[in-house]
Amino acid sequence: MSIVTREAVVQKLEELDLHLSPFIDYRLETMFPKLEGMFAKGAIKKKHKLVSTIEPLMEEMLLKNETVLFVSKGNQYSFVERFFMGIWSTTINHTVVILTNLRLLCIRTNGKGKPKKTFWCIYYSQIRDFKSTFAGNAKIILKDGKKLVYSGFPKIDRNKMREVFIEAYDNFESKGFDPEVTQSQERLCGHCFEVVPKGQYQCPSCTATFWTPTEVGVRSLIIPSWGDFVMGHYPIAIAELIGFALVLFVVTGAIMNGDYLFAAFFFFMANVMDAIITAQIAKKGLHLKQEPAPGAEPEPVVRVSRA
Asked: Which of 73, 6, 66, 68 shows the shortest CA–CA distance to 33?
């Protein structure tokens, strides 16, 4: 494969009449690693569409002097979610991954790449290994033992992502930069983008509050789907609501037949399983419950310059 230069990417984007934000510093040659060949034009347009969708958010999230090296969209789910939820697990785990010169950012999105308000960041010093699995997934092993598996990246991105990561990791390590963290994959506030320490559900910077796993689980115990509604998982919440209606139908039939023990057991188990799974999902990230009151926010952190 020929070496792609920044100038060649700029020329190709101009040729396709595609434009990126002048307020974000991109390393274009790693953002768009293939400019010619079969399907290259379509891949460039698709990547540009994804980047354009998240640019307003990146302008708010990125720190001063932070350079975007790579952007792609995949799906990050756990084995438990896949086992119990099947294909539905993909609907709540669409994730845009951004590699910068400072950190790895993860943004939860809908299927079209539109950002939600659940974010994470991982400093390169917190990554123990980055692998490509036999199935074509990206597997990130963190210092605290956590393993993140991402699937669904386009092939060109899968090939480029590890290369970009290794270069960014080496540059990061050479500077001896090892920021203090509360966990390897830090959760970011959905309002001000600052780190919310492990185990906390109120942002120490802006006072925004987030749903706790217990609050979400209890709601799903009462009415399956309630917990997913508060987390903004609307497609699966609607599916669960339909499932709950079927549970009520079965329970009602059992009661009418005098099978009270079965009715109670079936209702209890259906709700408990949903509550446990929903609470586990809630532990993965922060889901905004209430934004800070006007006047309660501190001075903003200096981020992307628009000067």
From this structure: 6
DSSP line for 45-76: HHHHHHHHHHHHHHHHHPBTT-EEEEEEEEEE
Fold of 6-209: PH-domain like (2.30.29)
First to last CA, the chain: 38
Q: Is pLDDT of 142 > 80?
A: yes
Determine if the pTM surpasses 0.90: no
Would you state the structure tokens that stand for residue 231, as one six-digit string? 């987390």
Number of H helices, E strands in the chain: 9, 12
- Specify the DSSP element, H or E, that contains 194: none
How many Cα atoms are found within 13 Å in the side-chain-facing hemisphere of 34? 20
Looking at every residue in the chain, the average pLDDT score rounds to 88
Indicate whether 2 pLDDT > 70. no
Compute how many other C-beta atoms are within 10 angstroms of the C-beta atom of residue 189.
23
**Which pair of tokens denotes residue 131?**
């692998």
Helix extents (H) in 101-222: 155-174, 213-222
Summarised one tens digit per residue, pLDDT across range 46-90 is 999 999 999 999 999 999 899 999 999 998 877 667 666 666 677
